[in-house]
């Protein structure tokens, strides 16, 4: 009963926000506010599916559209030029730009109860990291992103080793891991969760992969809003937050590799502090 | 640096400037002849674009065969004049031409349908045109974990060894392969095999097999039989979505270009690759959630972030 009441209160609050936002938008702003998305680890051609799925989901809920980007610079340009919208980006990316942009992190993505992930460098038939000189390392994301990630993961003393790698960018983590299993690469950098997925698909292949290094833990996807849009953007943030309550919303979250969102202010202090913009 | 072969016509590859984005500064300088069967074909063009992006800084001499009268003698002249470190052929026609030329430079190929039908020679390396059957089975297990009895028709003339390998591998991923070998795959034989196979399986797996998939009518017949039996079809090319495939795992085309570049970098460094021909490392997955729901076949929702195209009922 309490949950029902809470749900109704939130629904009324959202209606009020939406009405207010529509009223203001009519006078001063473009007709549609957008959810902007950029994640260097996403497969570029899955963006059409993401756009269709999110536009379909958002359309009945208000004047909203989903706008995915496959080039980081274009996403950041949109961020610099457009203060109306919710910007979804990786924890790694947010950490890099939060000092430059007036952005507030409002939601963090959650998968299997966790909002942090780490990357694991794993290889087959290799004793330790030093044996990787000159090998092909597979992973998701652009080559620049992967080299930066590998350098962060292996530390400054291994930068020359990372420079010796041939980096092979593949569309998904599971491709990177299978590339090692099937001999197209000698090592892979992937999320811990993807390694667990491989263990479920093929325990034998998983057991042959040896973890050699791991990155620091980083946040999964983060939803942020420009500070000047925080109040007006509240209804859209709430729509995203409630996606896990509808089957279509859950499907869309799964396309992003998430089960739901968590409010930044509900995180324990060290994490919410980490996400706070300076 | 980018140069055009003088025999090519119609102002080839306008604006084909190299993008040096991916170079680390450590790649050895080399000269590469790229023979593209037809740049007007998306998969060939995308492959070459990714290859060039990755190989920025190398000298590329490109020939688009659909706009060129280059023959084997002409290619031999080109090789004798330019002394390339590598000849990269994209597509079957280009690979055939490169094979007919007698140049001594190492050869690299990709996007060649059934590359095994060409004579195997030393110094020839490549990226296969299809995922390995083991990769396909792994992806099936990942996306449709409850479809464990997998049926496959094959012509032993083309696929005896591959299916034997797949059968051995299927156990590793908890699948049961129910295979039907058809020595004489005329229509009646295929129809009879399907009638026997379909009741025993959860999903029908189409593998690349010129003995079985002979023409459009045959393909339509197979899909119709599967549909009447209420069984989903898993296929290796997005072409089959139009016929009613519920799941497709095909190679990702840009990744093939990047893999070719990685292989080319090894060859320019005079490193001997572990395998002369690699399978594609990237996958392009299409899942028809609407069709699967109609057939009461569940997909793994946690695998949706690996799906490139999700087809719904809208």
> What does the overall shape of chain B look like?
elongated
Gross morphology of chain A is globular
Question: Under CATH, the topology of the largest domain in chain A is which?
Answer: D-Maltodextrin-Binding Protein, domain 2
How large is the share of residues in beta strands of chain B?
Answer: 15-25%
Keywords (chain B): Signal
Protein name (chain B): ABC transporter substrate-binding protein
Signal peptide (chain B): 1-25
InterPro entries (chain B): ABC_transpt-TYRBP-like
Q: What this model shows, in words?
A:
The complex is a heterodimer of chains A (about 280) and B (about 325). Chain A has 12 helices and 13 strands. Chain A has about 280 residues and is an alpha/beta fold. Chain B folds into 2 domains: about 1-130 and about 255-280, Response regulator (Rossmann fold); about 135-250 and about 285-310, Rossmann fold (3-Layer(aba) Sandwich), CATH 3.40.50.2300. Helix content of chain B is about 35%, strand content about 20%. In chain B, the strands form 2 sheets. A 7-stranded parallel sheet of chain B has the order 1-3-2-4-5-6-12. In chain B, strands 8-7-9-10-11-13-14 form a 7-stranded mixed sheet, with helices on both faces. The longest helix of chain B has 17 residues, at about 155-170. The chains are: A alpha/beta (about 280), B alpha/beta (about 325). Chains A and B meet through helix 2, helix 5, strand 8, helix 7 and helix 11 of A and helix 4 and helix 8 of B. Chain A: Keywords: Signal. Chain B: It comes from Methylococcus capsulatus. Chain B: InterPro entries: ABC_transpt-TYRBP-like (IPR007487).
Q: Keywords, please?
A:
heterodimer; A: 278 residues; alpha/beta; D-Maltodextrin-Binding Protein, domain 2; 2 domains; globular; B: 314 residues; Rossmann fold; seven-stranded parallel beta sheet; 9 helices; 14 strands; 34% helix; ABC_transpt-TYRBP-like (chain B)
């Amino acid at each position: 009963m309490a949950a029902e009441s809470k749900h109704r209160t939130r629904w009324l609050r959202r209606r009020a926000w939406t009405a207010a936002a529509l009223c203001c938008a009519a006078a001063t702003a473009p007709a549609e506010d957008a959810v902007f998305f950029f994640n260097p680890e996403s497969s570029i051609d899955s963006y059409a599916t993401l756009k269709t799925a999110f536009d379909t989901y958002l359309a009945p809920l208000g004047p909203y559209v989903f706008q995915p980007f496959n080039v980081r610079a274009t996403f950041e340009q949109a961020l610099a030029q457009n203060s109306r919208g919710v910007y979804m980006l990786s924890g790694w990316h947010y950490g890099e730009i939060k000092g430059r942009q007036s952005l507030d992190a409002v939601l963090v993505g959650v998968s299997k109860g966790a909002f942090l992930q780490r990357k694991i460098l794993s290889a087959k038939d290799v004793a330790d990291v030093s044996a990787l000189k000159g090998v092909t390392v597979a992973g998701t994301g652009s080559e620049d992103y992967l080299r930066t990630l590998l350098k962060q993961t292996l530390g400054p003393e291994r930068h020359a080793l990372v420079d010796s790698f041939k980096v092979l960018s593949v569309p998904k983590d599971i491709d990177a891991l299978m590339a090692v299993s099937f001999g197209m690469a000698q090592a892979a950098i992937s999320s811990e969760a993807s390694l667990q997925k491989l263990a479920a698909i093929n325990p034998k292949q998983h057991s042959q992969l040896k973890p050699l290094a791991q990155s620091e833990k980083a946040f999964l996807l983060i939803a942020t809003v420009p500070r000047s849009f925080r109040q007006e953007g509240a209804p859209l943030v709430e729509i995203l937050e409630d996606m896990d309550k509808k089957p279509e919303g859950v499907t869309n979250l799964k396309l992003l590799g998430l089960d739901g969102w968590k409010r930044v202010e509900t995180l324990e202090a060290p994490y919410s502090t980490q996400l706070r913009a300076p | 640096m980018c140069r055009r072969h003088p025999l090519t016509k119609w102002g080839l590859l306008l604006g084909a400037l190299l993008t040096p984005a991916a170079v680390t500064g450590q790649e050895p300088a080399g000269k590469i002849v790229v023979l593209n069967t037809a740049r007007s074909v998306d998969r060939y063009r995308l492959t070459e674009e990714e290859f060039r992006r990755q190989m920025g800084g190398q000298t590329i001499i490109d020939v688009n065969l659909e706009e060129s009268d280059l023959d084997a003698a002409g290619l031999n002249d080109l090789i004798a004049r330019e002394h390339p470190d590598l000849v990269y052929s994209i597509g079957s026609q280009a690979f055939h031409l490169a094979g007919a030329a007698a140049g001594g430079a190492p050869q690299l190929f990709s996007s060649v349908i059934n590359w095994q039908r060409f004579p195997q020679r030393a110094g020839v390396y490549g990226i296969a045109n299809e995922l390995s059957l083991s990769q396909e089975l792994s992806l099936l297990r990942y996306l449709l974990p409850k479809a464990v009895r997998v049926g496959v028709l094959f012509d032993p003339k083309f696929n005896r060894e591959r299916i034997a390998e797949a059968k051995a591998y299927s156990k590793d991923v908890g699948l049961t392969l129910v295979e039907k070998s058809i020595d004489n795959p005329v229509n009646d034989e295929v129809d009879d095999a399907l009638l026997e196979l379909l009741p025993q399986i959860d999903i029908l797996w189409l593998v690349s097999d010129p003995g079985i998939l002979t023409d459009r009518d045959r393909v339509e017949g197979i899909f119709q039989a599967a549909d009447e039996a209420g069984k989903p079809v898993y296929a290796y090319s997005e072409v089959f979505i139009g016929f009613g495939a519920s799941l497709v795992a095909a190679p990702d085309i840009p990744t093939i270009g990047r893999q070719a570049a990685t292989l080319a970098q090894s060859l320019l460094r005079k490193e001997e690759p572990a395998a002369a021909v690699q399978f594609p490392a990237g996958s392009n997955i299409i899942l028809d959630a609407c069709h699967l729901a109609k057939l009461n076949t569940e997909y793994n929702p946690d695998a949706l972030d690996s799906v490139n195209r999700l087809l719904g009922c809208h």
